[in-house]
Amino acid sequence: MLNALTLTGQSGKHILGFGRGGTGKTAQITTLPKPCFVILTDPPSLETIGGYDIEYEAFFPDNINTNLASLAHAAEGRSSQGAVKIGKPEAFDRLNQWLREAIDSGFFGKFASIALDSITATSDLAMDKIVWLNQRPGWIAALDDYTPIMNAVYSTIRQLVSALQGKPFYAIAHETAKEDKIDVGKMERTLLAIGQLREQLPRLFGNGVQTVAELDLKRQQRYYFNLLKTPRLPAIKCSFRSLQGKERHDGTIEDWTRPYEYGLGKLLKEEAALAHKPA
Q1: Which residues of 59-92 are buried (b: 16+ CB within 10 A; e: fewer)?
Q2: For residues 70 and 80, is the Cβ–Cβ distance under 8 A?
Q3: Which residues, including other chains, have CB under 8 Å from residue 227's CB and lie 6 or more apart?
Q4: SS3 string of the chain?
Q5: Distance between CA 91 and CA 57 in Å, rounded?
Q6: What is the spatial distance between Cα 55 and Cα 59, in angstroms, rounded to a whole number?
Q7: Residues 6+ apart with CB under 8 A from 219
Q8: CA-to-CA distance for 193 and 150, rounded, in angstroms?
Q9: Which pLDDT tens digit goes with each residue over 72-93?
């Protein structure tokens, strides 16, 4: 029989960070405890983590389909004439094969923290594969494409979350705007994910923070973690003791030569200290 009392010395927080582009999501990776390892599926991430002591594996899009196809052809089940044949997109399969081997070999054990950037881009890799498998080059994804994509992405993230219990894990996702069902005519921000993944993904994480960028009174850019859970932002939740009762937290990196003293890295360090004091 296990007892949760043995977990008080751990700071293995699992954090889902989501927000619009340019709100500092990827920058928070530089603050994580070292040694840090990142699984990259979003190419622009390299521009942010470049120059820092962070190990990574990249699984970027390959054999991208650039064919054009009309909706009329799609409705008739016909391919566009002159479509360029492309090879099978391999990135999603390579990611899962590598992940399985990394888990089986205990690869993650030598790192103090792990990050994934991003869940959104990982979903795109799955989309590339399923459209190719269903032989619809250049077509928009059909309804029967979405269920296998949701299942595959959810299983990938679920496997990773399970393997990293007790270790800080930060996963990045993006958000999008859609019409508010309550206030007609207004837009709301929501997790950018396919169908039920919007509800399923947050369930895998003990923490969900929305990243926000704003100008302060001195017209300087500041980066915040929105911690206020609302019916419109159900993915937000927080298990950090130091953040209880707060609606937001300033995660701005003030000194890029010492990013670990700010943002998520600082919070994890504080949480590790508090973890030795049972609530």
Answers
A1: bebeeebeeebeeebbeeeebbeeeeeeeebbbb
A2: yes
A3: 209, 236, 238, 243, 246, 247, 248, 249
A4: CCCHHHHCCCCCCEEEEEECCCCCCHHHHHHCCCCEEEEECCCCHHHHHCCCCCEEEECCCCCCCCCCCCHHHHHHCCCCCCCCCCCCCCHHHHHHHHHHHHHHHCHHHHCCEEEEECHHHHHHHHHHHHHHHCCCCCCCCCHHHHHHHHHHHHHHHHHHHHHCCCCCEEEEEEEEEEECCCCCCCEEEEECCCCCHHHHHHHCCCEEEEEEEEECCCCCEEEEEECCCECCECCCECCCHHHCCCCEEECCCCCCCCHHHCHHHHHHHHHHHHCCCCC
A5: 12
A6: 14
A7: none
A8: 9
A9: 555 555 555 555 567 889 999 9
β-pairing, 36-40 with 14-19?
A: unpaired
pLDDT digits (tens, 9 = 90+) for 186-231: 667 788 888 889 889 999 999 999 999 999 888 999 999 999 988 7
Residue 206 tokens read as 């003990």
The most distant pair of C-alpha atoms in the chain lies apart, rounded to whole Å, by 68
Cα dist. 279→4, 168, 196, 241, 249 in Å? Answer: 12, 20, 35, 9, 21
Cβ(145)–Cβ(130) under 8 Å? yes
On whether the pTM is more than 0.85, the answer is yes
